[in-house]
Amino acid sequence: MTYIRITKRFCFEMAHALARYDGLCRNIHGHSYHLEVTVKGAVLDDKNSPKNGMVMDFGELKQIVQETVISKIDHALLLNADSDPALIETLQSHFDKILLLDYQPTTENMLVDFARRIAEKLPVHVALCSLRMSETDTSCAEWHEYDNNEL
Predict the structure, then answer these.
(1) Cα dist from 18 to 31, 65, 66, whole Å
(2) Rounded Cα–Cα distance for residues 133 and 65 (Å)
């Protein structure tokens, strides 16, 4: 049986602020994020299947990532729920897509969250291998399955 990894790339816009951070990122700011999702599985060897020769249809992977991650965070403001309550109230009175998280919205923490969401929706014959997300042209974080065996 042959195992192959396939990768789908996504782009989205998102803002965040890091509560109690001691640098510039404590201020609300946005990024153009680039997310790469890599899965692995056996290549289907069934001449009667329309998916013959595939690990997974790229369209199916796109749909899973769109539904579990991108549609929720694209053009949203992500804040730690422990942020200043007055700030949260003011922002919520002016803007619609504000997500309060139980974690600090760093790229690293978002990848942990995204990995869990995506892995839960993958077909049983496909495993999440890695996620790589860039928040700037020079800064990225990566999540790898072999470093995180809890999924």
Answers:
(1) 13, 25, 25
(2) 13
pTM of this structure: 0.93
**CATH: 3.50.50.60, 1.20.1260.10, 3.30.420.10, 3.30.479.10. Which one for 3-147?**
3.30.479.10
3-class SS of residue 113: helix
β-bridge mates for residue 41, sequence order:
4, 126
> How many other C-beta atoms can be found within 10 angstroms of the C-beta atom of residue 72?
14
Q: What is the pLDDT along the chain (151 residues), one digit of tens a residue?
A: 789 999 999 999 999 999 999 989 889 999 999 999 999 999 999 999 999 999 999 999 999 999 999 999 999 999 999 999 999 999 999 999 999 999 999 999 999 999 999 999 999 999 999 999 999 999 999 999 999 876 5
Four-point Cα dihedral 58, 127, 64, 72, nearest 10:
-130
In this structure, is the dihedral angle defined by the CA atoms of residues 74, 148, 108 and 22, taken in order, positive or negative?
positive
| H-helix segments, 27-106 | 58-65, 71-73, 85-94
